[in-house]
Amino acid sequence: MAKATSKPATEKKAPKKAAPKAKALSIEQATESILDKFRTLNIEQQLQSELEWCLGSYRFDGNPVGLVNSINNALVVLKAEQTKKTKGVTASFIGSIEKALA
Hints:
Oligomer: single chain
Helix content: 55-70%
Radius of gyration: 24 Å
């Protein structure tokens, strides 16, 4: 009797799924992230106070104008810290904050 050659069973591979997109931060989450970063680095106490006040005001009345201005001020500081190569201030962190403002 002749042996029948068998082909190895091929498995059907599932199509590759796209990597999940990073969820954009809300303006509140962005502010809280900035505050955490400033507290960790122990910098900009005045700006921290301003951000906390504006965040409370935003939560009360829903008007983001003051909060957006404060975040823009914080971005200037964060970008300066990034150029100094401060640990924890990354381009992706700054990008996520900028996305929240968009």
